[in-house]
UniProtKB/TrEMBL annotation:
This is 6-phosphogluconate dehydrogenase, decarboxylating. Belongs to the 6-phosphogluconate dehydrogenase family. Pathway: Carbohydrate degradation; pentose phosphate pathway; D-ribulose 5-phosphate from D-glucose 6-phosphate (oxidative stage): step 3/3. It comes from Rhodococcus opacus M213. Substrate binds at N108, S134, G135, G136, H191, N192, Y196, K266, R293, R453, H459.
Length: 484
């Protein structure tokens, strides 16, 4: 039934655009009495009119009625625009709620905003939960990956509901308590950054196959469909195969050829890189993906440079098509491993900085289903952390991933080198390989950089043979002094 006036709702959803509406339907379908509210009542009415038979909904025309329809402790999921609109809704609802109630922000909020909101609502005894939700419109309706932060007490209350509506893989829910205050939104931010890297790497693989082997989009789509049956099995590879096989009805051309080559972005990838810079942790694969989108949209510069700036005179022509396709596949897999390792590193460093206790194995587990980066590959990460919860330094040092990277060496390096010689941009592949080589180097040229810093700014340096900080009197007799 669509309306039960005497019932009390187990959870409420306010903000009934597509994501909010689909989450409300998901809740109702799973047997939860769901209160629904929107600033404009017309959206509430549309939801009830079109989907009211899917479960028990309690529609409200005002915030007061909405809050009153909820059982105590009240649990309200906010699905409105991030930033000011979210703050306005929180303030409005908090004034109507009581200590012990729970407000859940399911939007793509900045984790710093979530920490601020949690601290403010804590003063009133209200639990605030920043909750990352991934999976798009389909995931919201049929089971997303859910990354809630907040207090353990709030998760005890709302966790069973969120776990039930999440995607499930091997019987396990793709939902887990990530950590306190902003941890959930932090992990969702990094998830989106990894998504940027994954998409960029896939696009580079497509470009290599098209320019290096002369394959058509449809032929490349068939290759991606085949790759989706192996280690690269993932949602993004699956949809790539479908996109490349699609033909534009109006022109008869491959669909990918009539789409303007300027990729948009909403900001979460940028946040991931900015936060990594603040934390001092390298996420070069994610950063290059963000920069590549920026370059794609620099239409004036690209138009001026095309046909003017020189490049290699001979295009890449793969002599053995099957071998080339396999090399690109292996290079894609290796680069993907690096991108995920960097994202997990950022989560580790962020957790240490902000006092969160985040289980990386659980993070990988809940990303296996429902979310945009869901992939067979994540089973390997889950297994790695299950086998060793103290994986040293980097995911790349877990045995499976060390073996995979070792096996990829020749193909990976050959693809990156060949692309450079042929003038095919592969910023994601190249950044991943460069990071890998930097990580495995016993000594880096950073020693020279630090010496330069000491020369022009007296920033000091440390020595390999003794403790302390030192400065050389570069403008004097070049003698060395110990500063600490």
């Amino acid at each position: 039934m669509s309306h039960a006036p005497t019932a009390k709702a187990e959870i409420g959803v306010t903000g009934l655009a597509v994501m909010g509406s689909n989450l409300a339907r998901n809740l109702a379908r799973n047997g939860f009495v769901t209160a629904v509210h929107n600033r404009s009542y017309s959206k509430t009415k549309t939801l009830i009119d079109e989907h009211g038979t899917e479960g028990t909904f309690l529609p409200s025309a005002s915030p007061e009625e909405f809050v009153a329809s909820l059982a105590v402790p009240r649990k309200i999921l906010i699905m409105v625009e991030a930033g000011g609109p979210t703050d306005a809704v929180i303030d409005e609802l908090a004034a109507l709620m009581e200590p012990g109630d729970i407000i859940i922000d399911g939007g793509n909020a900045k984790f710093e905003d979530t920490r601020r909101r949690q601290a403010a609502l804590h003063q009133a005894g209200i639990h605030f939960v920043g909750c990352g939700i991934s999976g798009g419109e389909e995931g919201a309706l049929n089971g997303p990956s859910i990354m809630p932060g907040g207090s353990a007490e709030s998760y005890d209350s709302m966790g069973p509901i969120l776990e039930k509506i999440s995607a499930h893989v091997d019987g396990a829910p793709c939902c887990a308590h990530i950590g306190t205050d902003g941890a959930g939104h932090f992990v969702k931010m990094v998830h989106n950054g990894i998504e940027y890297a994954d998409m960029q790497l896939i696009a580079e693989a497509y470009d290599l196959l098209r320019r290096g082997a002369g394959l058509t989009p449809a032929e490349i789509g068939e290759i991606f469909a085949d790759w989706n049956t192996g280690d690269l099995d993932s949602f993004l590879v699956e949809i790539t195969a479908e996109v490349l096989g699609h033909v534009d009805a109006e022109t008869g051309q491959p669909f990918v050829d009539i789409v303007l080559d300027a990729a948009g972005m909403k900001g979460t990838g940028t946040w991931t890189v900015q936060t990594a810079l603040d934390l001092g942790t390298p996420v070069s694969s994610i950063a290059e993906a963000v920069f590549a989108r920026g370059l794609s949209s620099s239409s004036v510069q690209r138009a001026a440079a095309a046909g003017t700036l020189p490049g290699p005179t001979s295009p890449w022509s793969a002599k053995d098509e099957d071998a080339f396709v396999e090399d690109v596949r292996v290079a894609l897999y290796a680069s993907k491993i690096v991108a995920y390792a960097q994202g997990l590193d950022e989560i580790t460093v962020g957790a240490a900085q902000y006092g969160w206790s985040i289980d990386l194995g659980a993070v990988a587990r809940i990303w296996r289903g429902g979310c945009i980066i869901r992939a067979k590959f994540l089973n390997r990460i889950t297994e790695a952390y299950a086998a060793d919860t103290t994986i040293p330094a980097s995911l790349l040092l877990a045995p499976y991933f060390t073996d995979a990277i070792t096996a990829a060496q020749d193909s990976w390096r050959g693809v990156v080198a060949g692309a450079a010689q042929s003038g095919i941009p592969t910023p994601g592949f190249a950044a991943a390989l460069s990071y890998y080589d930097g990580l495995r180097s016993e000594r880096l040229p950073a020693a020279l950089i630090q010496a330069q810093r000491d020369f022009f700014g007296a920033h000091t340096y440390r020595r390999v043979d003794k403790e302390g900080a030192f400065h050389t009197l570069w403008s004097g007799d070049h003698s060395e002094t110990r500063t600490a």
